[in-house]
Amino acid sequence: MTNHGSTLTATWLALAAIAVTGAAAPARAQVQATNAYDLPAQDLGSTLRAIAQQSRLEIMFADETVRGRHAPALHGILTPDQAVTAALAGSGLTAELRDGAILVRLRPGTETATADQADEVTITGTHIRGAATASPLTVATRQSLQDAGITDMATFSRMLPQNWGGGQNPGVAGGGDQGGYSNINNSTELNLRGLGADATLTLLNGHRLAYDAVFQGVDISAIPIPAIDRVEIITDGASALYGSDAIGGVANFVLRRDFSGLETSAKVGKATRGGDVTQQYDAITGARWSGGGFMVAAQYDHNSSLNASDRAITNAVNGAQTLIEEQSQVSVILTGHQQITAPLSFDLDAEYMDRSLHKTNAFTNSCTGM
After folding, report:
1. How far is 83 from 75, CA to CA, in rounded Å?
2. 3-state secondary structure at position 48
3. How far does the chain reach from its first CA to its final CA, in angstroms?
4. One domain, residues 86 and 143
5. Could you tell me if 11 and 94 lie in one domain?
6. pTM for this one?
């Protein structure tokens, strides 16, 4: 028996956000605790996150403020504010102690500084001002994913140690926790600690996404790798803050807010013993202007089927039985923002995915005699 199925997922998110900015107040206290730092020369954002994690002090900065800037190597015993000051050397940025946290922003008078860049700070994941998170946080940047050879979110989910790779994951043929049909729509859903996809809260730019039409989970394979700036994962229960859908943890996919130009990539491969030919084509483009910008990324994936007849180890199974489904998928994601008038701004996130599957279920084996 041959079954043909298709799934269509479309998620449109639109948000009009009010951003309130305020003048910075001079710091009235100095952080006295010292820590031994041994950090290599790297991008400034990574250094600031490392200092925050080691010192357990909240360091706030906007991604666009530190993007493209680098920090020198840090070695020695320093207080957090001394470490941050050393990291900012020559960057044109300044640091202030405000309400128990360190605020990093453009130095007043810098030509590229604007009111929004100087004062707007977004904080995710806490209701307690200045408090360090008690849950472990894993951050995977787009560059680190590419360096690891990861080209899609399905591969990322299988390489994440805290994620259970069974159930809703391409390549899983039956079994699992969904009544024997855990891979019916070939989606990829995060399942931190194996508590179920509905117990892992999946966010896009900090906003909740709708569950798919089959199971209670968010299909992250609809997010093209080129569109991602970083993935932030709380690998411990966070239901006290986010609700019961975050018992297993939280994953926040942060998109590239601005992009200028055009980038493309392609991947073609096949199994060494034949079958399962894969193709993947990516493209990303965008533009920036005064007060706004947009980014749009698209990804096309196709892989041929792998049947029981293609492998000697499955010679006892009907040769028409599908081991890996034939699949075609198109994913598109769009994000944009525009400053309307201080303090009013408009943000838009939109996502579209179309997937088709073809598989054969054979209910007889290949034996012809007794």
Report:
1. 9
2. helix
3. 24
4. no
5. no
6. 0.59
